[in-house]
Amino acid sequence: xxKDIHSHHISQQFNAELDDAKTRxxxxxxxxxxxxxxxxxxxxxxDSGLAEEVARRDNKVNNLEVEIDEECTLxxxxxxxxxxxxxxxxxxxxxxNDLERMGDEASKIAKHSIALANEGGVSRSYLEIRHIGDHVxxxxxxALDAFARxxxxxxxxxxxxDKAVDTEYGTAMRSLVTYMIEDPRSIGSILNIMWSLRSLxxxxxxxxxxxxxxxxxxxxxxxxxxxxxxxxxxxxx
Length: 237
Known about the structure:
Methane Monooxygenase Hydroxylase, Chain G, domain 1
């Protein structure tokens, strides 16, 4: 169920500014989610055309971050919000930064897919990209949904999923190292896969960061650097 955690004011303009900043941030999130999805698709299909499109769209993500963050700065300067309104503006601003970083990582995956296509690719190891990519993609979607609905239990689940992604990432990297040892001719291609997996793992980290912003926004507790058990206590408490 969607919660409404920020105050409603006599000034309808203030309400409109808060709602607009949140809406634009979520629209940017939708673009970044598509960037991640398209980067994975380009990698899986060695689609250089799609990969180049992902890289070009990164500028749009960067521009949106600057525009919306400036909007948040103006709200802080003009309205001097307090309590839940202040948390909302700060959470939006911090989320913008995580989304921009996700866009950067998607662009890196796209560039590695181009390099892999130019090398002719390898016959295996795409399974790791697909599996972890699907997992991370779900985390990004759920983190944005949690923000849209002010849903701290869903945000907690995103944070919990990040631990599983880290485990999957470690397993995949060990498998790829073994493959390189068995077939040294594959080293160039496997390195592109490993760097792409690293970018996916980082996207998962940023999704967790957004989840932490949601918990801060809804529960009023800063859970950055907190263990999962501490986060669970804050959300369920």
